[in-house]
Amino acid sequence: MTSNSGNRDDTGRARPAGSVRVSGAVERHEHDDDVNPLQLTPTQEFRAVRPIGHLPLEHSTERIGAALRVIRQRFTGTPEVAIVLGTGLGELARGIKTDAVVDYGDIPGFPLSTVETHAGRLLCGTLGGKTVVAMQGRFHRYEGYSLQQVTFPIRVLRALGASTLVVSNACGGMNPLWAPGDLMLIADHINLLGDNPLIGPNDDSLGPRFPDMSEPYDAGLRALARDVASRQRLTLREGVYVAVPGPNLETRAEYRMLRAFGADVVGMSTVPEVIVAVHGGMRVLGLSIITDQCLPDALEPATMAKIVAVANRAEPKLTALVAGVVERL
Fold this sequence. Notes:
Blueprint: H1 42-48, H2 61-72, E1 81-84, H3 90-95, E2 97-103, E3 121-127, E4 130-136, H4 147-160, E5 164-173, E6 183-191, H5 219-231, E7 236-243, H6 252-260, E8 265-267, H7 271-279, E9 283-293, H8 304-328
Parallel strand pairs: 1-4, 1-5, 5-9, 6-7, 7-8
Antiparallel strand pairs: 2-3, 3-4, 5-8, 6-9
């Protein structure tokens, strides 16, 4: 059985799951050496090989506590709101009156972002009169991280005291009535990542074994966002976000399938963080910038340069909306 040190580099930072050799996949029993596995009955085989339940977990209270202690050395406030500054919310970072800035590399257990547009810093301060903590940069499954690694920061934000999470993202639009540059309020989501950050032993102190997901995006926060958008004269769409692993964009056939599933937009993030936030009892508000049209019968090649350019043009609208919501919480 191995320790968790294999998941760290020489500085103690988290590595992508695919970068290390993982061993110790089964639990051994005291009489295992006397048993020929080829002669096991189905019942004996089930008892002899089962998931390990006591290996160190990414979301253990010990790991969360270690990260918390480092942040508390620089910031003693209790945030009301945690914000994940995805694509389209870079300008909001400049609106936060920061009391402390902590690099992800200084926080035990935090992964390191490999995406150029994600700065990799935790901003602690105030926005709209509210104490906030904002992640300037997030993590993705396509970077090679496990979903537990991707969502570990959400556990830490919750442990800091945040009861509300605001997440944003850039996404492809599959609703033919919407256009690039539109903002969308996430009403619900579909998880097609092929994984879930809650898989494995559950720590009841962090949340229930089987969390309810009938309303992952808080109805009260969505109503507030609609009201703020109306007052700011912003067009705010509302629909379903589907998460896929990436990093490639989708084929025409895949867009047809996702649309048939009931999704309005598609992206590669957000859903794991929302699952963990809901598991931890947080209220969640999700917002998307539609950066390109993904209509299979009129599909044009998309480039990251075009996607980022559209996100940048829509950024002031999303920034004003989030700031307005936070101010009224």
